[in-house]
Each structure stands twice: as structure tokens, then as C-alpha cells.
Amino acid sequence: MKYALLLSLLFLMYGCKNENTKTALLDEKSIDNTSTTDFNLEVYDFEGFKKFLNRKDDTVYILNFWATWCAPCVKELPAFEALLHKYQNENLEVILVSLDFPNQYNTKLIPFIEEHDLKSKIVALNDVDMDTWIPKVNPNWSGSIPATLIYKNNKQTFFEQSFTFETLEKELKHFIK
């Protein structure tokens, strides 16, 4: 699996055009005429994305790095959605960070989000300089997905693994009162 991810990441690194925009919104006008979606996908390069990594407030943040082409990632998404629902009255924000290929946002990612009725905040990270940004997320991260960062203020844990609802909830409980 790591070999497939490495190969995919190399493709992403060399196959995508790096635009120097911090944030771009894909809305229904940028989707081909056969789509009738109202979903707005926030797309960031790493510089724009950094704001999600170091918020200092009384909220627990769970950032899950995933892609639609990653079977273990897709399998664990219901755990994140169920956690968000169960703890909706807590200070919890789940952010699903898609690492899908930019040329597939309209054809695969957005339809996937709509088909699965995902309620978590979803952003796309489009930055081909992975050797620079991966260690800034966590210095021990190899780049494999799924990967999850859980933090609150200055306390954080990082996981390079899949989660079930039970294992994810167990980790969350280290952060909530």
C-alpha cells in the first residue's frame, strides 16, 4: 500500500500544475454542465491550509487526510461522520482533508461527497511540494494515508492508520472533558 501511495504521490507531484493561489473555490459554475451540484469545495495550497493546523481555542480538531482512491480511507469515513454526530454538542470540528488529484475534484471527489452525504468540513489540499509540507503536519509522517491529526490548543496526537468508530472515540476522549 505504501508503494502505491508513493507512486500516486509522485504522479501528483509531477502531473499537477502548481498554481500559486492560496485558496480557490470550486462552485457549480466551474463544474461541467452535466452536474447540478451546489457544493463548494475549498481548495488550498499548504500556505493557505496552515490555518487549520494551529488553532488555539477550546475546540478539539480532528484532521483526517484521505482520498477517494484510498480504500482504507473510504472505509473509515463513517467513523468520523458518526463521531461528529455523537459529539455535536461538544467543541469538536472534524475536517476531512482530501488529497485527491485536482483534475478529479469535479468528476470524483465532489460526486463522492454528495453521494455519501458527508457532513464534516471538507477541504482539498493541492500542493505538489509534499516533501516540504508533510513534515510540517507531523515530522514523523511518512506521507501514507489515511492519516489523522487530533489536537486541542498545544496538545496533539498523530496517527498513520485507519480508525473504527470505537478506536477514534477512544482517542477523542483524551481531549474532551
Automatic annotation (TrEMBL):
Domain Thioredoxin span(s) in chain numbering: 24-177
Superkingdom of source: Bacteria
GO molecular function: antioxidant activity; oxidoreductase activity
Keyword list, A-Z: Redox-active center
Transmembrane segments: none
PROSITE patterns named in the record: PROKAR_LIPOPROTEIN, THIOREDOXIN_1, THIOREDOXIN_2
CDD domains the record matches: TlpA_like_family
Protein name: Thioredoxin
